[in-house]
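WP5 quarterly update. Target: UPF0173 metal-dependent hydrolase PYCH_05180. Source organism: Pyrococcus yayanosii. Length: 227 aa.
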Amino acid sequence: MVAMVKVKFLGHAAFYIEGSKKILIDPFLSGNPVAAAKPEELEADLILVTHAHGDHVGDAAEIARRTGAKIVAMYDIANYLVENNKGITTVGMNYGPTEIDGVKIVQVPAWHSSSDGKYSIGNACGYIIELDGVKIYHAGDTFVFKDMELFAELYGPIDLALLPIGGHFTMGVEEAAKAVELLKPKKVIPMHYNTWPPISADPEEFKRLVGDKAEVIILKPGEMIEL
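Structure tokens (predicted):
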């Protein structure tokens, strides 16, 4: 029997992926008004961070220190985290493919800034993860760009894409729908919307714009799908 990969939406851009490994992405939980979990409730083997903004780094260091999980991030961000947090292990990388503890990971570009609120740190990125034969793309914070078509060509077919739709800091619903055309994923979950008023968006409108190009799955924080 093939093991199922579970993907739980934790709110904002945070996701918990569980298969043969437990993977957290952008675990912004403390201070997140829509968070569906507390940092102390989660176990992890790997924690993937897309960029240095606080609503994405979130509780990564705290969870890594408690669980022994490795934090995977852009090289500069990984160094920044390990220098400022005792008792954690980081894996710094840059755009390209690697394998960490049996999980295939491709760090891909994202069009966005990356800072601790004062100083720029590294570059923003997304991740294409292959876990137990399932390919998941987490876009991080980004605008739509033509290279997404190359992601599909090199690393597809993508089983699930996690795409921001909130606008203001990232793609809005129209741009995200265009990203679906470029990426050609089988399924899409919208993220990074309705956490705060500036990123208010209607996921049903996104679903309407995507149409039959992919299956759009709208999750509330705490809800999960199996792949």
